[in-house]
Design brief:
single chain; 295 residues; alpha/beta; ten-stranded mixed beta sheet; 12 strands
Length: 295
C-alpha cells in the first residue's frame, strides 16, 4: 500500500522568524512522503527571500497583498490539490511540531467517515499545558463548549465538533466535497465555519493526542486583545452567526451574543484597553453590513 502524499501548507505575513522556526521543525518530520509550502501574504519584511535562502527546497507562493487567513490558505490548498495531495495539513506558522506529528494523524484518518484529524496543541510558553484539543458545540447557540479541552485528561483519540484551524489534517475527499474555506472571513471563525460544514457533510473530526504541536499564540494578530485582534474577532463572529443561524434560533443567539459583547467590553475597559473595546464594536458593526460570499 502506497504512503499517502501529504502537503503541509503554512501562511506567513511579516513573521519570518516564526516561519523559519516552524520550518526547522517541519524539516525534521519523520513522515516519508510530504511536501512543504509557504504562502506569503504580501510580507514587507523580506520573508520570501529569507525563507528561500534558509530552505530552498520549500515551495513558496507569494501573494500581492495580505489576503487574510481563508483566502491565503485557499491558494495553498488549491496548489496542493493540483499537485496530487492525498491530505493537506494547514498549519499556523507560529507553531513547533514534534518529529512524529504526521503518522498518528494519518492513522486516525483511515476510517472513511473521518474527515479531519488534529493534534493536541500545547502552549509554546508552557509546553505541558494544552492550548486546544478541540471543542464541542451548543446545538442552540452554536457557541463552542468545553474550553478547548484544556482541563480534561486527554489520552485516547476523541471526536470533536470543532478543531482549531491552527492545525488541521484534511482529507482530499473532504476538500473536494465540502470545498475550501469561506473567504468572507478575513481572520477568525473560518475554522469554526469549516468544521460545521464538514460535519454537516457527514464527516467526523478527531483530536489525536499522540500528535503534538506547540503554539506561540496570537502572533498573526499582534497579540491577544490588540485592536486588530478584537476587530477581526468581532467582525468574523457576526459573519458566522449571520451565515448559520436561522429562524427562531435568533431569539436565543441575539441576547446571548449581546451579553457576550458586553462582557468582553467590560473586561477590556477594566484592562485599560479602550482602543481595543472601540475596535471590537467597530468589528461588530462592520460584520453586520459586510456582503457575504457564502461557501
Amino acid at each position: 500500500m502506497s504512503t499517502p502524499l501529504v502537503w503541509i501548507v503554512t501562511l506567513n505575513w511579516n513573521r519570518v522568524e516564526d516561519t523559519l522556526a516552524c520550518l526547522e521543525t517541519l524539516t525534521r518530520l519523520t513522515y516519508p512522503n510530504l511536501k512543504l509550502l509557504v504562502v506569503d501574504n504580501g510580507s514587507t519584511d523580506g520573508s520570501p527571500s529569507i525563507i528561500a535562502t534558509h530552505y530552498p527546497a520549500v515551495k513558496q507562493i507569494v501573494n500581492l497583498g495580505n489576503f487574510g487567513f481563508a483566502r491565503g490558505f485557499n491558494i495553498g490548498l488549491k496548489h496542493a490539490l493540483d499537485a496530487g495531495a492525498d491530505f493537506v495539513l494547514i498549519l499556523n506558522n507560529d507553531t513547533l511540531a514534534a518529529p512524529d506529528l504526521i503518522e498518528p494523524l494519518i492513522a486516525a484518518a483511515e476510517p472513511a467517515q473521518v474527515g479531519i484529524t488534529a493534534p493536541a496543541i500545547f502552549y509554546a510558553s508552557a509546553p505541558t499545558q494544552i492550548w486546544s484539543a478541540g471543542a464541542g458545540r451548543s446545538r442552540w447557540t452554536l457557541d463552542l463548549t468545553g474550553d478547548h479541552g484544556r482541563h480534561a485528561p486527554l489520552e485516547a483519540n476523541v471526536e470533536r465538533e470543532f478543531v482549531s484551524g491552527c492545525a488541521m489534517l484534511i482529507k482530499r475527499v473532504v476538500l473536494e466535497k465540502v470545498g475550501l474555506f469561506d473567504e468572507s472571513f478575513f481572520m477568525y471563525y473560518e475554522d469554526s465555519d469549516y468544521c460545521l460544514r464538514v460535519r454537516r457533510a457527514g464527516f467526523s473530526l478527531w483530536v489525536v493526542p499522540a500528535a503534538r504541536l506547540w503554539h506561540k499564540v496570537s502572533g498573526s494578530s499582534d497579540g491577544g486583545d490588540s485592536p486588530m485582534e478584537r476587530f477581526n474577532m468581532a467582525r468574523s463572529s457576526v459573519l458566522f452567526y449571520r451565515k448559520h443561524v436561522v429562524s427562531w434560533r435568533w431569539l436565543l443567539v441575539i441576547p446571548w451574543r449581546l451579553g457576550s459583547a458586553l462582557k468582553t467590553t467590560v473586561r477590556l475597559m477594566r484592562l485599560g484597553r479602550s482602543q481595543s473595546a472601540q475596535a471590537y464594536w467597530c468589528g461588530l458593526w462592520h460584520g453586520l453590513w459586510t456582503n457575504m460570499v457564502r461557501a
